Amino acid sequence: MSGFWSWFIITLVVLNIAGCAWLLWWTAKRRPGDPAPEQTSHYWDGDITEYNKPLPKWWINLFWLTIIFAIGYLAWYPGLGNFAGYGGWTSAGQHDADVAAAEARMAPVFARFQGRSIDDLANEPDAVALGRSVFGNFCATCHGSDARGARGFPNLADGSWNWGGTPDQILTSILDGREGVMAPMGAVLGSEQAITEAVVYTQSLSGRRVDPQLAAAGRSRFMVCAACHGVDGTGNPALGAPDLTDGVWTYGGDFDSIRHSIVHGRHGQMPAHGPIIGETRARLVGAYLWSLGQDTPARE
């Protein structure tokens, strides 16, 4: 926070406290020259008039105690601009302390899974169940509670892996994250006809029924894509280039979706979760995903 805004907040807080104290002092008792109750001409319910019901002393003292408490609170805890308070408390420090305490409580639960391979953990029901729980907390926002993803977020339960589906590759994806970039190829292909042919040929790679003449013409167009996806379209896990023959489409396999991918490109990023959940939890999540992908055919 800049010095200006720090002093602005300090001034605002001090003025508010001082204003409350002044208002309490000013209204706590009658002043010389105040009219008598019967002289105000303000009556309610017949016999209730102004100035005849002053606040009890204990009530006024409670207001003063509230002001004193507020001053003490602002001295001990942060609340006056950049002043950190004499107590040294911060929300970040409290968060870190709570996390450390929770980690200490959970350490025995995760200890027996530490360092074990994903495929080994996948054979243990307790590990898979724990991995599903961790997945639900940290991964379901993007990939869905059932790990089947959504448009733009890969299905992790179908056995199709853009970056490779070995235990080590899955663990690397979770720990370090991935960034997939599909370059826009509209300008490279040049014409709308060429783009259409490339789209139709791409659809044909997964066995779809398409116009055979457009698909045949698109084969040569596809050569600009072969550097990443391979001549046969089966992809390249080292680059995260998807297999275009398995019928699995992260952004949709209809004509318009594929056309958009080719013309405008795509950019997807999987954030690194190693710093967030640690290696043992990452292994458990990997075991859960590995168990989902076994003997599961790729879906159209």
TrEMBL record:
<keyword id="KW-0679">Respiratory chain</keyword>
<dbReference type="InterPro" id="IPR036909">
    <property type="entry name" value="Cyt_c-like_dom_sf"/>
</dbReference>
<keyword id="KW-0677">Repeat</keyword>
<comment type="pathway">
    <text>Energy metabolism; oxidative phosphorylation.</text>
</comment>
<protein>
    <recommendedName>
        <fullName>Cbb3-type cytochrome c oxidase subunit</fullName>
    </recommendedName>
</protein>
<feature type="binding site" description="axial binding residue">
    <location>
        <position position="270"/>
    </location>
    <ligand>
        <name>heme c 1</name>
    </ligand>
</feature>
<keyword id="KW-0406">Ion transport</keyword>
<comment type="subunit">
    <text>Component of the cbb3-type cytochrome c oxidase.</text>
</comment>
<dbReference type="GO" id="GO:0006119">
    <property type="term" value="P:oxidative phosphorylation"/>
</dbReference>
<dbReference type="GO" id="GO:1902600">
    <property type="term" value="P:proton transmembrane transport"/>
</dbReference>
<dbReference type="InterPro" id="IPR004678">
    <property type="entry name" value="Cyt_c_oxidase_cbb3_su3"/>
</dbReference>
<keyword id="KW-0375">Hydrogen ion transport</keyword>
<keyword id="KW-0997">Cell inner membrane</keyword>
<dbReference type="GO" id="GO:0009055">
    <property type="term" value="F:electron transfer activity"/>
</dbReference>
<feature type="transmembrane region" description="Helical">
    <location>
        <begin position="6"/>
        <end position="25"/>
    </location>
</feature>
<keyword id="KW-0349">Heme</keyword>
<dbReference type="InterPro" id="IPR050597">
    <property type="entry name" value="Cytochrome_c_Oxidase_Subunit"/>
</dbReference>
<keyword id="KW-0813">Transport</keyword>
<feature type="transmembrane region" description="Helical">
    <location>
        <begin position="58"/>
        <end position="76"/>
    </location>
</feature>
<dbReference type="GO" id="GO:0046872">
    <property type="term" value="F:metal ion binding"/>
</dbReference>
<feature type="domain" description="Cytochrome c">
    <location>
        <begin position="126"/>
        <end position="206"/>
    </location>
</feature>
<feature type="binding site" description="axial binding residue">
    <location>
        <position position="229"/>
    </location>
    <ligand>
        <name>heme c 2</name>
    </ligand>
</feature>
<feature type="binding site" description="covalent">
    <location>
        <position position="142"/>
    </location>
    <ligand>
        <name>heme c 1</name>
    </ligand>
</feature>
<keyword id="KW-1133">Transmembrane helix</keyword>
<keyword id="KW-0408">Iron</keyword>
<feature type="binding site" description="axial binding residue">
    <location>
        <position position="143"/>
    </location>
    <ligand>
        <name>heme c 1</name>
    </ligand>
</feature>
<comment type="similarity">
    <text>Belongs to the CcoP / FixP family.</text>
</comment>
<dbReference type="GO" id="GO:0005886">
    <property type="term" value="C:plasma membrane"/>
</dbReference>
<dbReference type="Pfam" id="PF14715">
    <property type="entry name" value="FixP_N"/>
</dbReference>
<feature type="binding site" description="covalent">
    <location>
        <position position="228"/>
    </location>
    <ligand>
        <name>heme c 2</name>
    </ligand>
</feature>
<feature type="binding site" description="axial binding residue">
    <location>
        <position position="182"/>
    </location>
    <ligand>
        <name>heme c 2</name>
    </ligand>
</feature>
<keyword id="KW-1003">Cell membrane</keyword>
<feature type="domain" description="Cytochrome c">
    <location>
        <begin position="213"/>
        <end position="293"/>
    </location>
</feature>
<feature type="binding site" description="covalent">
    <location>
        <position position="225"/>
    </location>
    <ligand>
        <name>heme c 2</name>
    </ligand>
</feature>
<feature type="binding site" description="covalent">
    <location>
        <position position="139"/>
    </location>
    <ligand>
        <name>heme c 1</name>
    </ligand>
</feature>
<dbReference type="GO" id="GO:0016491">
    <property type="term" value="F:oxidoreductase activity"/>
</dbReference>
<dbReference type="InterPro" id="IPR032858">
    <property type="entry name" value="CcoP_N"/>
</dbReference>
<dbReference type="Pfam" id="PF13442">
    <property type="entry name" value="Cytochrome_CBB3"/>
</dbReference>
<comment type="function">
    <text>C-type cytochrome. Part of the cbb3-type cytochrome c oxidase complex.</text>
</comment>
<dbReference type="InterPro" id="IPR038414">
    <property type="entry name" value="CcoP_N_sf"/>
</dbReference>
<keyword id="KW-0472">Membrane</keyword>
<keyword id="KW-0812">Transmembrane</keyword>
